[in-house]
Amino acid sequence: MNVTLLIDAIIFGNLLVLLSIGLTLTYITLKIPNFAHGDFATIGIYVAYYFLVFHKISPYITLPIAFLVSGTIALLSYLLVFRPLNNRGISIVGLMVASIAIEVALRSTLHIYADSLTNVYKVISRGFIFRDFGIRISRTMYIPGLLIVSTALTFTLIITLYILLTKTKFGIAMRAAIENPDLAEVLGVDVNKVYAVSWFLAGGLAGLAGALVPFRMPANPEIGWMLLLRVFSSSILGGLSSIYGAMLGGYIVGFAEVIGIQVLSNPPFNLSTAYRPAIPFAILIATLLLMPEGLASKIKLEKIAAKIRGVKKQ
Amino acid sequence: MILGITDPIRFAIDISAFFSIYLMLSISLNLEYGYTGISNFGKVLFFAGGAFTAGALATRTIMNLYSSQIGNYGPYCTANVIYATEASKILANNPTLAITMFVGLLILGGIIGGVLGYLASYPAIRLKESYLGITLLASGELLRIIARNYDPLICGSLGVSVPDIFAWLPVGVKEVVQVGVMLAIAFITWYFVEKLVRSPFGRLIRAIRDNEVAAEAFGKNVVKIRMQVLVIGSAIAGMAGVLYAFYTKSIHADDFMPLKTFIVWVMVILGGAGNNVGAALGALIYVLTERLIMQYKYMISAPFDVNYLSYIIFGIVLILILLYRPQGILPEKPSKTISFEKVIKKIKQE
Q1: From residue A165, how far is each of A169, A173, A178 by CA, in Å?
Q2: Contact B322 A98 (CB under 8 A)
Q3: Which of B73, B187, B198, B244 is close enough to B79 for a disulfide, judged by CB 3.0 to 4.6 Å?
Q4: Residue A118 sits in which domain range?
Q5: Cα–Cα distance between A31 and B182 in angstroms, integer?
Q6: According to the model, what pLDDT value does residue A288 have?
Q7: Is residue A139 part of a domain?
Q8: Cβ A98–B319 below 8 Å, yes or no?
Q9: In sequence order, which residues have a C-beta less than 8 Å from that of residue B323 and are 6 or more positions away?
Q10: From the CA of A114, how many Å to the nearest CA of chain B?
Q11: Helix axes B8-29, B43-65, angle to 10 degrees
Q12: Residues linked to residue B160 through DSSP beta bridges, in sequence order
């Protein structure tokens, strides 16, 4: 197989995994798909861009700041909107509408920020890309820095999350609160705190993924929203409520999209690459029709972990 | 000139036209969400379905029927503006054709909307609300992406012109007639939905919304009824799309962003879910606000597009309503029943 294509697929898979884990973390708290999740990623992009343009700091170094800013915005959206709404006993559809409202507000804010960058500071604010470093191994082999960074980041975070959820007291409390909020509360777990931490982590992971996006594709305020469809597709494929399922789903959708469009855009199909979003959509529909509970219901947790380790070795 | 509006009649016509389109959309969403509790986050899909039907077929139909009267200006897509103008000229001399085509496309748009409603909701209608919401939203985006890249539909990113279907009326009269027809269709729809929700079917859908399990226990086929509601709502949205195409006379794929869906949700939740007067009020408030912003935005000097500011405000308003007045401006009212006196009278007569 073409090496560049494989590298593309791994990178795209890494980004989708980071995003889908975050989406799943918020889904398991309030049982709503957070439509604003893509915009947390876009916030990460513009945080990285701000430091690159005004302070000349590489986006790789400012990753923790992107994590913190996006995480804080996600936390605020939980504390100011979702928690009060949930406490008032609003329906799931009401919560989803609220998340769309946050999405529209955040995206418009980012547009305003981008417009201001262009008009006030005379800086390009749409369609920019980040310059990456890379290692040339041979004439045909070129390893982009993003491959190393995103893979290392994704696996460090997966392992950290695994240790957090299974080995620490807080993680066990977190799983209990997610599994059965009422029972956990009776046993003295602060469910609100657990949910707040979930939202912060989710936003932070999205911010990290976002800060890496412009290394691969031209960024604009809409890009998070465009990625959201893929994120939904991978999360639903993974089962929407399983973090490990989300990891698997992220890689499957990432690989299917990158390799699939390569196959479809060449003979005998000759489709335009603009139809790329149709691939995650097809996966979404197929999942809903064939196994709406997602992969997590079909495969035992240990087997998924084993599969993820398999992907890691590539 | 009143308040800086150069042409008040034109302004009123514009507001009425958009009000009738948004009224149809908000009333259909109210039927789906307000009365049945369906999370239709793909309203724009069905609206676009209707608009694309009119956009794709109007000029082409006339070109096929009157191919001898229309010259050859080159490929359809690159010259579709000229072809649409030629088609308008033919329609100007042929009122019967114009009316037949208008009614025909309106019905076809409704059918396409309904079929899209069935297809798009099929994978997820049995699942939780969140899955249905995601699927419909994604389907809407997919249709937009296809329309933007697949030229035979609406000429891809170029967009397509729609002929003036009321060209047979004199200038000055035709705009008023067109808006009159649009308002009439919108109010007929409103009346239809109002009658529907007051019928036994209306009680059934409210029962499904309030307690799905209970409705199922009484032997009601919940999935089938939700599907029926979605198909009816989508057909209404499809017809609204046809009216939109004939009013704006030009269709671009990127006019059908998911933001349109959000706007319709704002109308329904602002006005009052489960109350058709509320949905109409929400549509009116939104249209007035939007048109006034468009009118006065040039007076505000900001280093960014003022529209974004209005979206932020709509988002915040929506969240505040959900928080502090979830029932909307006009809350849902209990079903209308015959007054107590009338019942007593009736009993006494017997």
Answers
A1: 8, 9, 11
A2: yes
A3: B73
A4: 3-221
A5: 41
A6: 87
A7: yes
A8: yes
A9: A81, A84, A85, A88
A10: 8
A11: 120
A12: B251
Contact check, Cβ <8 Å, B326/A229 = no
CB contact under 8 A, B259 and A104: yes
Residue B79 lies inside a defined structural domain of this protein: yes
Encode pLDDT of B78-131 as tens digits. 888 888 888 888 888 888 999 999 999 999 999 999 999 999 888 888 888 888
| Calpha distance A143→A269 (Å, rounded) | 30
Nearest chain A residue to B319, by CA: A98
Indicate whether A301 pLDDT > 60. no
Count up the domains in chain B and report the number.
Answer: 1
- On whether residue B251 sits in a domain, the answer given is yes
DSSP string, A20-67: HHHHHHHHHHHS---TTHHHHHHHHHHHHHHHHHHH---TTTTHHHHH
Q: Between A3-30 and A37-55, two packed helices, what is the crossing angle to 10 degrees?
A: 120
Chain B residues within an 8 Å CB radius of A91:
37
Range of the domain at B221: 8-256
Q: Which of A96-100, B73-77, B255-259 has the highest mean pLDDT?
A: A96-100
B-chain CB neighbours of A227 within 8 Å are none
* SS3 state of residue B155: coil
Which of B33, B124, B308 has the CB atom closest to A93's CB atom? B33
Question: Both tokens of residue A54?
Answer: 């005004």
Angle at A27 between CA B332 and CA A15, to 5 degrees: 135
Please state the three-class secondary structure of A180-197 as a single string.
Answer: CHHHHHHCCCCHHHHHHH
Classify residue B233: in a domain, yes or no: yes
Residue A243 within any structural domain of the chain: no
Across chain B, mean pLDDT equals: 89
Residue A140 sits at the chain B interface (C-beta within 8 Å): no
Does the residue A236 lie in any domain?
no
Say which residue the tokens 């701000």 belong to.
Answer: A50
CB pair distance less than 8 Å for A101 and B262:
yes
Which pLDDT value is given to residue B1?
46
Q: What percent of chain B has pLDDT over 90?
A: 44
Collect all residues of chain A within an 8 Å Cβ-Cβ radius of residue B134. Answer: 33, 232, 236, 284
List the one residue out of B87, B106, B145 whose CA is nearest residue B21: B106
For residue A248, tell me if it sits in a domain.
no
Contact predicate A93/B34, CB 8 Å = no
pLDDT of residue A132: 82
Given the cut 0.95, state whether the ipTM is greater than it.
no
- In contact, A284 and B135? CB cutoff 8 Å: yes
